[in-house]
Amino acid sequence: MPKAKQISAWVDDRPGMLGRVADALGEKRISIRAFMAAVMDGKGFVRVVVDQPAAARRVFAKHGWKTTEDEVVEVTVPDRPGALGRVADLLGEAGVNIQYAYVGTAQSASKVNLYLAVPDVKAAVRALR
């Protein structure tokens, strides 16, 4: 069960900001595998999973965007009804709480990757094997 590095960044909450973030990563040929964006406490907040986390951190730093990095669980599931439920049920039965989750791209058109933030990544990985 793979784990992934997730980079979270605080950015300005204004029109075009998500485009600026994506463009900055794209200019350095960093591929976004998954992302979520929201407004929290009056600031823009972006979470990304990318193919080059170290390079992405440098891009964020260059633009003055404060970041944190966390490990998340990456689960590839079929793109069909019930797939998320099965993963969430396994983690629930193991006593692992999902704090938040989002979807990203997988290598196959018939699959998606789930990115799950959990307090105990090792326990989640064990539960999903």
Characteristics:
VC0802-like, Alpha-Beta Plaits, 129 residues, six-stranded antiparallel β-sheet, 2 domains, alpha+beta
Question: How would you sum up this structure, described in words?
Answer:
The chain is of the alpha+beta class. It has 2 domains: 3-70, 2-Layer Sandwich (VC0802-like); 72-128, Alpha-Beta Plaits. 31% of the residues lie in helices and 39% in strands. The protein contains 4 helices and 6 strands, in the order βαββαβαββα. The N and C termini lie close together (7 Å). The model has no long low-confidence stretch (mean pLDDT 93).
SSE inventory with pairings:
Layout (H helix, E strand, L loop, with lengths): L2 E9 L5 H11 L4 E9 L2 E8 L2 H10 L4 E12 L4 H11 L6 E5 L6 E7 L3 H8 L1
Antiparallel strand pairs: 1-3, 1-4, 2-3, 4-6, 5-6
